[in-house]
Amino acid sequence: MSKVESAAGRPDPDLPGAVPWALENAVPQRRIDLLSLVPLVAIIALVGLVWALVWAVSRSENEQARLKLATDALWVEQTLRFQLNIDEDMLVSLAMDTVGGIDMATMDARARSHIVTNPEALAIVWHDAEGARMRSLPGDGAPTDDALVMQLLQIEAQPSRPVYGAVSPQGIVSIGMKLPERAGVLTATVSMPLLLQRHLPWWIAEQYGVRIVGADDTVLATRQRLQPDPANPSHTISFDPPLHGIWLHINAYDRPAGFRSAALFGAIAGLAAFAILALVVLFRSAQRRRAVELQLRGETAFRRSMEESLTVGLRAKDHRGRILFVNPAFCNLVGWRAEELVGRDPPMPYWDRATLTETQERHRKLAAGGAVSQSFETRFCHRDGHEIDVQVFEAPLIDARGVHRGWMGSVIDITEAKRAARLARAQDETMARTGRLVTLGEMASTLAHELNQPLSSIASYAAGMLNLMERGDPDPKTLKDATAKLAQQAGRAGLIIRRIQDLVKKREPKFIETRLDEVIAETLGFLDADAREHRVRLKAQSTPVPPVTADRILLEQVLINLIRNGMEAMSERRHGDEVTVHLREQDGQAVIEVVDQGSGIAPGLDNRLFDAFATTKAQGMGMGLKICRSIIELHRGQLTHRPAPGGGTVFRVSLPLAGPETGVTEEAA
């Protein structure tokens, strides 16, 4: 059984992505499909028929091959016997001529002619009645079989046919004929190897290896062009008589066609086995495919269930903006049914008509921007007419081939979140205003003293001018100088009052391009009297920094709070008498550092310094630094702190430089 299905016919829970509860009722009981067995039965029947046919053909071919081999072997045997009979007839003829009075010259000529035309005949020898050699051809050294000669001389009767002697290991045999009237013995020596070489037809030699073997399987003569395979068909015929214990052995060089048919049968059987195996694999693959299809349907249902359960709106669209898919959450968000939205081209019915041009431009830029994820806030209009603030996250829609087909958007309703943000911002503004009032309350005596100085000067200049006029004939130049000084002091008093008004009045934040060096200079001037009271010198060190987008009054509030905290820390214990404000540009941001030379931050307070109500002052509320951090975060900046070298604390404010992407808007806030 495959991994996809268990013994119960259910999906394997080890499969990646398997959803057992979604597939629990989706897999039916497995049934044996009889129709699926038809191809298997057909293949088995075909293999059986082919097997029987090949077996029958192979058997018939083997029988024909054996019959042909036997026929060829008999033909070879008859050919060799025929040639030996010719040698026998020559011997009988010479024997008759010897006793018939034919002269020796004639007999020599006949004998030599036979030797020339029959090379297997090595020699012809005449023996007398005692067995002594009288004459031999082709010379005196011609071989003969003395044992055969003596055997013939001892025979009383006259044999009708020549007698064969024993075959030597070299394949040499002698044929003897007893001459009539006890005239002696006539012998002929025959070479069996030459007999095969001379009288075996070429077409036999091309197909078979022929050997003449003795009783002990000694090879006496052979003719073969290569060593035959012992497994090939062979045939053996006895050569007795006339040669006692001699056999003729014929061995085929090639196997018969039946053996090639067996190889063909093996190939067919292998192909049939492969077909059966392929059928089994196909059957198992079909089972697995059915199980995967069931699993896919279950997973599709599961994903559809998840899509319908999501509270986040999902919307897919192609490059033209035509909607491909929406989930129920998106339909509920805009009040339109899926059937009314899918397949629709822009403009969409839920787009806000007031921002239609802006929305169309945004979608055009999205399509031209490539496969890059984007996020933006916009406003939709519900079908019933009320407006919805939404956050849209657009991600590239990539198909299975890796082609960018469009965009998948996640839409979140942030109407309530923005309402809560506006409420929190209003509360932060109220808290900041309260903090400014508290700061002014703490600085009341200092501010009164600071304001008293220009007012006293104004009163003095006014009294002096009255005295000059009462004396009569006042000097115009003196009056002019006094009037100018009086106006200067009045302007100074008015500046102090305007600063106090800016700090205490309730207003919306105004984010404009602001030069931080000017903000620092005005803040230090505002705190100059307070610094003299604390016997602290205020110092500014700045380098040219581009403007930032900020609310000037809020930044002054932050700097006032940080500088006054430093002055108050130095009133308890100090390592110097300076509070230094540094301004520089670093990593594309404007950085302000307020460095005091006071006692530093208590060890247990540094981790919760920006928490509400965290303070070391006896009369403090612990809200100043929290308000400062809220103001800086409103400007998309950061407020941090660290110990100063040599004692004291460094508060670091980092703000993004002014630019088209750093503008602080209501939506961003």
What is the topology?
Layout: H1 20-23, H2 38-99, H3 104-117, E1 121-127, E2 133-137, H4 146-153, E3 163-164, E4 172-178, E5 185-191, H5 192-199, H6 202-207, E6 208-213, E7 219-223, E8 234-238, E9 247-252, H7 257-309, E10 313-318, E11 323-326, H8 328-334, H9 338-341, H10 356-368, E12 374-381, E13 387-398, E14 404-413, H11 415-442, H12 444-471, H13 476-504, E15 512-514, H14 516-526, H15 528-533, E16 537-542, E17 548-550, H16 552-572, E18 578-586, E19 589-595, H17 624-634, E20 638-643, E21 649-656
Parallel strand pairs: 16-18
Antiparallel strand pairs: 1-2, 1-5, 3-4, 4-5, 6-7, 6-9, 8-9, 10-11, 10-14, 12-13, 13-14, 15-17, 18-19, 19-21, 20-21
What does this structure look like?
The strands form five sheets. The chain has a five-stranded antiparallel beta sheet with strand order 2-1-5-4-3. The protein has helices at about 20-25, 40-100, 105-115, 145-155, 190-200, 200-205, 255-310, 330-335, 340, 355-370, 415-440, 445-470, 475-505, 515-525, 530-535, 550-570, 625-635, and strands at about 120-125, 135, 165, 170-180, 185-190, 210-215, 220-225, 235-240, 245-250, 315-320, 325, 375-380, 385-400, 405-415, 510-515, 535-540, 550, 580-585, 590-595, 640-645, 650-655. With about 675 residues, the protein is of the alpha+beta class. It has four domains: about 55-250, Beta-Lactamase; about 320-415, PAS domain (Beta-Lactamase), CATH 3.30.450.20; about 415-510, Helix Hairpins, CATH 1.10.287; about 510-669, Histidine kinase-like ATPase, C-terminal domain (Heat Shock Protein 90, 2-Layer Sandwich), CATH 3.30.565.10. It is built from 17 helices and 21 strands. The protein is about 45% helix and about 20% strand. It is an enzyme of class 2 (transferase). InterPro entries: HATPase_C_sf, HATPase_dom, His_kinase_dom, HisK_dim/P_dom, HisK_dim/P_sf, PAC, PAS, PAS-assoc_C. One of its GO terms (molecular function) is phosphorelay sensor kinase activity. Keywords: ATP-binding, Kinase, Membrane, Nucleotide-binding, Phosphoprotein, Transferase, Transmembrane, Transmembrane helix, Two-component regulatory system.
